[in-house]
């Protein structure tokens, strides 16, 4: 398999490909990062890093993991089910429950299969849409002792953003009809946002924030062939029927850190 990491691995850091299962029995592909001089007879804090919504572990997570491993953390990155190197069919399905469960599956793996991890010091970082899923996991999984988010999106809120009740009702009707169409065709519709091959540059006239996303995901800087953006069309229904952060107050007194860009499109969340 060609992994296509967007950042060079530090010579001081080791990376091991791992595979483990979520509670639905789907295999998740992960990368375990550790400092090469780590004394494995001791216990260390661990961090789980979730990729941006529609992204894979070889993109932003590898950048974060490389740096945190150098600083003494054990770091686990992973691909969501139906994405990248993880299992699950059909591909590019989005599920708030499964994407939240992935963080708990990572905690399972770290606490059982990595003997030099301190079970009482496991945290999570969610980039973009993973921020919402990391917080959602921490609502119920008290083994996650701290959460940090970077430019967080809460995807169950994002699908409703700017839509009137009438528009949401119309979207539900259209998506419900789409399920019949997909069933007749034998596969769900998937319309990727990014090209198979990286662009040389972003075309002029593309409005923001679309242009901002293209400047990373569609050009060589951040492009990955297994992260072409978006999910199956009818995946939106699962987001419309869920509320990710209904119990976010129950994370307290565990600490939460929000990293927010002053011009970020996601600042609203």
Automatic annotation (TrEMBL):
GO terms assigned for molecular function: hydrolase activity
Matches recorded under InterPro entries: AB_hydrolase_fold, Polyketide_trans_af380, Xaa-Pro-like_dom
Top-level taxon of origin: Bacteria
Gene3D superfamilies membership: 1.10.10.800, alpha/beta hydrolase (3.40.50.1820)
Domain Xaa-Pro dipeptidyl-peptidase-like stretches: 28-152
Keyword Hydrolase found: yes
Keywords, sorted A to Z: Hydrolase
UniProt keyword Transferase present: no
Name of the protein in question: Alpha/beta hydrolase
């Amino acid at each position: 398999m060609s992994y296509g990491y967007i950042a060079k691995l530090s010579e001081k850091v080791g990376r091991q490909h791992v595979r483990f299962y979520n509670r639905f029995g789907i295999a998740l592909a992960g990368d375990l990062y550790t400092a090469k001089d780590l004394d494995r007879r001791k216990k260390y804090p661990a961090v789980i890093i979730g990729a941006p919504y529609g992204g894979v572990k070889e993109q932003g997570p590898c950048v974060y993991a490389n740096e945190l491993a150098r600083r003494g953390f054990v770091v686990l990155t992973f691909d969501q089910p139906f994405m990248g190197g993880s299992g699950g069919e059909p591909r590019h399905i989005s599920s708030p429950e499964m994407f939240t469960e992935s963080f708990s599956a990572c905690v399972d793996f770290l606490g059982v299969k990595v003997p030099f991890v301190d079970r009482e010091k496991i945290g999570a970082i969610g980039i973009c849409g993973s921020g919402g899923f990391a917080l959602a996991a921490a609502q119920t999984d008290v083994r996650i002792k701290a959460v940090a988010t970077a430019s967080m999106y809460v995807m169950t809120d994002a699908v409703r953003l700017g839509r009137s009740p009438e528009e949401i009702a119309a979207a539900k009707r259209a998506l419900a009809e789409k399920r019949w169409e997909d069933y007749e065709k034998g596969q769900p519709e998937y319309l990727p946002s990014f090209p198979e091959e990286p662009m040389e540059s972003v075309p002029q006239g593309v409005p923001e924030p679309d242009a901002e996303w293209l400047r990373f995901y569609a050009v060589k800087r951040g492009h990955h062939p297994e992260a072409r953006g978006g999910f199956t069309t009818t995946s939106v229904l699962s987001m419309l029927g869920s509320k990710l952060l209904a119990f976010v107050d129950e994370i307290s007194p565990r600490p939460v850190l929000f990293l927010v860009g002053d011009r970020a499109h996601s600042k609203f969340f």
